[in-house]
Structures are given as structure tokens and as C-alpha cells.
Amino acid sequence: MNRQRVLVAGLVLTAAAIVTALVAIPRLGERHTLTGYVEGEALYMAAPVSGAVRSVSVVRGQDVAAGQPLFVVDPAQVRAQYDQASAETAAAEAQAQDVRKGQRPVELAVYEANIAAAEAAARDARATLRRVEPLVKAGWYAPSRLDDAKAAAEAADAQVRAARRQRDAAALGAREDQIRAADARVAQAAAAAAGASARLQDVAPSAPAKARVEDVFFHAGEWAPANQPILSLLPDDRIKVRFFVPEKDLSAYRVGRAVRFSCDGCAGGLTAKIDYVSPRPEFTPPVIYSREARDRLVYMIEARPSTRLNPGQPVDVEPLA
Fold this sequence. Notes:
Elements: H1 2-24, E1 34-40, E2 43-46, E3 51-56, E4 63-64, E5 71-73, H2 76-99, H3 105-137, H4 143-171, H5 176-202, E6 211-216, E7 223-224, E8 229-235, E9 239-246, E10 258-262, E11 270-277, E12 282-283, E13 297-305, E14 314-319
Antiparallel strand pairs: 1-9, 1-14, 2-8, 3-5, 3-7, 4-6, 6-8, 9-13, 10-11, 10-14, 11-13, 12-13
Helix pairs in contact: 2-5, 3-4
């Protein structure tokens, strides 16, 4: 009795194994189809400063070209900063030019007058020396009188040389370290002006690429905080077909290869080029547009389609032969 039960159980298990093996064998000509969806990575456009939204030049769902204006946030604050930085740059440049120059002609004229006065005093001292010297030799004056006249003449000549050197120094520009310091102040002011100019452009940005306006979050007249998105764009080159490949089939999908995909209501013969293969495996998400059971260990793959699609669309993907 027990032998009969064991024999029957063995036959049942053998039949089940044969059925399982037959089911697991793919039918001849069956295509290996994967399921996925269309994913879109939005660009969120914002201004770096707070302010009232002056205008919004686009509407939700509109197609925009690269460089097309999007919106304007009140630029009064940023423009004031730019004007201040520009004025500081002009002042620094003027100062840098000034330190390279000598003093003005009027100021140099003062030094020339000092030279003339020193030369007159020197001529008077030499004339006095010429008068005293023969009188000392004749015994009319004491020798000390001659010594005083010589000292006065030498002092007068020294005053002439000092006045001329003062004039020459005034005609020169500032010292090299002062010139370098002035140039550094110019560079600092120019950098501040460039930053203010960039912020002035940021309050009125343009579309970085051809895209669709996905959504508009603020409208004209509303107050927008700094770095808060005013609207979002969905560029064509950021729309991808995302699907998951079982580990055993991963070798058939490599970056640069093309895949064929289809979706409801789409034209036939759509293709996409793989541009990313995840280096890490993951488990099949609990919510995925799946028509059949698949391995739980899968790799995410993204491919760039050749046509415009809408994010969220389910797709069926298969490799090109």
C-alpha cells in the first residue's frame, strides 16, 4: 500500500517537472519583449533673488526654442548692485591710471619755482664768496668770514640739488607696489561688476534648449522667493525610455546599441539608442507596466528616443536584430 502511494507521488512529481520544463522552453519565433515607461527629467527655472514676478512670457504646454525669454523678476535690486559695482570699477580704473602719472603741471610749477628760488640763493651766496675772498686775503676781514661764505655757498648749491630732485620725483608715477595694488583693486571691482551682471541676467533667464513648458508655478504680480522655481521645462533631450532587463539578458543591451519600442497610439518602427546601463542591480518595482512574469533581479536601462514622447507612457521594448 505504501509502495503504491510512493509510486503515485513520484509519477505526479515527474509529470509536474516535465510540464514546468515545457512551459519554460520559449516557443519558436517568440520575441523577448520587455516593458518600461517614458521618463522625463525636468529643468526648474528660478531666479537667485526674491522679488515680484514682472512678466511670464510662456504658458504651460508651449514649445520654446533655445534662447527664448521665459520670465522676468523685478530687477531693481540687482540693477542697483550692478550700477554700484560699475561705478566702483570706473573709480578703480581711474585711480590706477592716476598712479602711473606724475603730478599735474600746476603742481610741477611749484617745484620749478622752488628750484628757481634755490638757484637765486646759490648765486647770491657765490657772489658773496667772491667779494669776501679777496678782502680776507688783503687782511680786511678775518679768515672766519671766508669760511662762513664758503659754507653758505655750499649750502645754497645743496638746496638747488634737493629742489631739482624733488621736481624729478614729482614727475614720476607711483612706486611699482602701489601700481600693483591699484591694478588689484581694478580686478576686484571688475569681478564684482561681472557677478552683478550675471545676477542681472539671471532674473530674466532664457530657455537653455528646445523644450516644452511643463508647468508654471508663479504668474505676473506674484512674489517669488529666491531660488524658488518659477516654471519647469521638459527638454526633448531629457526624455528617455526607461526599462528593466533581467540579469541573464543584460549582455544584449550595451551603451550605443539601438532598441525597438512601441506604445499605445504611437507610430510604428520607433527606435531608441541606449545611453545608460545601471551598474547596480535592483528588484523589480512593485508597480510596473508588466504583461508577464519576469525575473526579480533586473538592471535599469535608459535609451534616448528619436521622437517626442510624453513622460509616463508605458512602452514595450525589444532589441533590434
